[in-house]
Design a protein that fits this description.
Blueprint (H helix, E strand, L loop, with lengths): L1 E2 L17 E7 L8 E6 L2 E5 L15 E4 L2 H5 L4 E5 L5 H4 L2 H7 L6 E3 L1 H13 L7 E3 L5 E4 L2 E8 L6 E8 L2 E5 L17 H10 L3 E5 L15 H11 L4 E4 L5 H13 L3 E5 L1 H12 L10 E2 L12 E5 L9 H6 L13 E4 L8 H14 L2 E3 L14 H11 L3 E5 L3 H13 L16 E4 L2 E4 L7 E5 L2 E3 L3 H13 L1 E9 L4 E10 L7 H17 L9 H20 L4 E8 L1
Parallel strand pairs: 1-9, 4-6, 6-7, 7-8, 12-13, 13-20, 14-17, 14-18, 15-16, 15-17, 18-19, 25-27
Antiparallel strand pairs: 2-3, 2-21, 3-4, 5-23, 9-10, 10-11, 11-12, 21-22, 23-24, 25-26
Length: 568
């Protein structure tokens, strides 16, 4: 048992007076990613998870999307600890950014594997002196007035936990990401006894994973993927490339087992894949003999039918190893006709187009692409409807809040809760920044706080101006045209206009220049403008508007217009 040095620590007995327990979702309720939930009780606060989300097509130039954790920074003096349920990017990816912004070294609690992955991430940010506390299933920690019990659960990564969070105002069960896998690769099954015992003792509020709430039945066991991987690799004539999430350690183990059974050596490529396989091997979660591994630089001379490559890129990321190989841009490896590529993952919502582009690029190379539509090379790590019902049945919550999903998933999960007998008025579908308050075991919506997202754009971290994102979308869709107008202040007129364009679907020829210049001059002649240095803003706007209207009438496109005035 670990206890923080806090004079307010005391037995978690329920009481109706005093400050309420506030459950504050800062991320994870508007999509699959950037999961972060703050639990606040008076002068004590804990944070569960700190994940990120990858940008979509509407966020050009953005590298990562983080939850807005301003509220945590404003209340840092209350923060007793950070609890991480498991090591996926959508639960740990924002940690380095958060830790750099915190003034104090807040202790982090999680499993050995998750902490190993976090250490590797924060080392890249040169964060030193961080406090880590390893926990296992059955452990508990006291953090101020919070008692957190860790419950072993199965997911697509080892060392995953559900949490029972007990406070003087009531008890919350936070499932994290989970499914009920009866034959897990590492043999660590869900702790049904602990979940049922906590349910019998009393769960006031359940926060449960909603990712597969629209999918009926049960999610297949991770072990069911192994035989399909083996058959696919065994029947492949040339090299085999397997793209999957680098943190999916159970999947990586099955890929390695299948490769060795087929007499093939294993090559690992992709930055995160190299890092996570190294950490998992060092901590004993991934068992690969050194003799079965070869470096990508040593691949020449080894028969193609003796090689399996584990790589990143299952989501079509443009800079991933698979995308670079598909485009012939990888520095050591290439894919050619006769190779087999296994996509051992499901596209995250929003990534479907990028994945399809990679598949088409691979098809043009003549390789055989195998995904879950052809063979059982992937199963989800999230429970389907029957598993979600089983969690509801075991925990017997008085109140219910679906989390981790898009709007359609949260609402589908809410319907399951109603089917399981929870009154609809006790089911809360919330948004990020909309807290629940618990007092004496009773739950009601609280006062919203400021929330949103933080964009990582190169070296810059902060709120991206919506105008900037809109301009980037316009540049990507319609291109850009520059109009350089020579303005005579003495004659109070525009003498000439020079045009240049990039990424537009029309040609700027002599006729275009003449007609566009004439349109701009007519607009200026009709208006009453102040031809002085102080009046150039109005002139610039008039040039942009008239030129934009001219292009629309002529081409039915709206490129970005950049007007430049040169005064003579």
């Amino acid at each position: 048992m670990t206890t923080t040095k806090n004079p307010k620590t005391k037995a978690a007995t329920r009481k109706k007076g005093g400050a309420p327990l506030r459950i504050i979702p800062l991320g994870g309720l508007d999509g699959i990613g950037k999961n972060m939930t703050a639990y606040e009780l008076g002068d004590d606060m804990i944070l569960v998870d700190a994940g990120l989300m990858f940008p979509d097509d509407n966020q050009p130039g953005i590298d990562l999307v983080l939850p807005d954790y301003t509220y945590v920074l404003e209340n840092e003096h209350k923060l007793r600890g950070i609890v991480i349920t498991h090591g996926h990017e959508d639960h740990i990816g924002a940690l380095p950014y958060l830790l750099k912004d915190l003034n104090n070294k807040v202790p982090i609690f999680s499993s050995k594997l998750t902490l190993g992955m976090i250490e590797g991430k924060i080392a890249e940010f040169r964060i030193r002196g961080q406090k880590f506390h390893e926990v296992t299933g059955g452990s508990h920690v006291n953090l101020g007035r919070f008692r957190v019990d860790f419950v072993s659960i199965t997911h697509s990564i080892p060392g995953a936990f559900s949490l029972r969070i007990k406070t003087p105002q009531g008890t919350v069960f936070h499932t994290g990401d989970y499914k009920f896998d009866q034959t897990p690769i590492d043999g660590v099954r869900p702790d049904y006894a602990a979940i049922s015992r906590f349910g019998a003792e009393g769960i006031d509020l359940l926060l449960s994973d909603s990712t597969n709430a629209t999918r009926p039945g049960f999610t297949p066991s991770e072990a069911s993927v192994g035989p399909s991987l083996f058959e696919t690799i065994k029947n492949a004539q040339g090299r085999v490339f397997v793209a999957t999430f680098s943190s999916q350690i159970h999947r990586l183990q099955q890929i390695c087992d299948a490769a060795r059974a087929c007499g093939r050596k294993i090559v690992v490529t992709g930055r995160s894949m190299l890092t996570n396989t190294r950490v998992a091997r060092e901590l004993g979660y991934l068992k690969i003999d050194e003799e079965d591994l070869i470096d990508a630089f040593e691949i020449n001379g080894i028969p193609e039918e003796k090689i399996v490559v584990m790589c990143t890129g299952s989501q079509g990321e443009p800079l991933s190893a698979l995308s670079r190989m598909a485009n012939g841009e990888h520095k050591t490896l290439s894919i050619h006709e006769g190779d087999t590529v296994i996509l051992s993952a499901t596209p995250v919502p929003g990534n479907e187009k990028a994945v399809a582009q990679v598949i088409n690029s691979l098809a043009k190379l003549g390789c055989d692409v195998v995904d879950k539509s052809r063979a059982l090379v992937h199963v989800s790590g999230h429970g389907s409807q029957e598993e979600l019902k089983l969690m509801l049945a075991m925990t017997q919550p008085k109140f219910f809040m679906p989390v981790h999903g898009e709007a359609v998933h949260l609402r589908a999960h809410a319907r399951l809760g109603a089917q399981m007998g929870i009154p609809r008025e006790r089911i809360f579908i919330m948004d990020n920044g909309e807290p629940l308050e618990m007092r004496g075991g009773q739950v009601r919506p609280g006062t919203p706080i400021g929330s949103g997202v933080v964009y990582v754009d190169g070296l810059r971290i902060g709120d991206a101006d919506p105008i900037v994102l809109r301009d980037r979308q316009r540049l990507a869709n319609d291109g850009m045209v520059t109009a350089v107008a020579v303005v005579s202040l003495k004659r109070k007129r525009i003498d000439a206009v020079d045009f240049s364009a990039r990424g537009v679907p029309f040609t700027i020829d002599d006729e275009f220049v003449a007609d566009a210049t004439d349109a701009i001059k007519k607009t200026i002649d009709k208006g009453k403008f102040n031809f002085t240095a102080s009046g150039t803003d109005a002139l610039r706007k008039a040039v942009r508007d008239s030129f934009s209207n001219f292009i629309w009438n002529r081409t039915k496109t709206r490129p970005m217009i950049i007007p430049v005035l040169m005064e003579v």
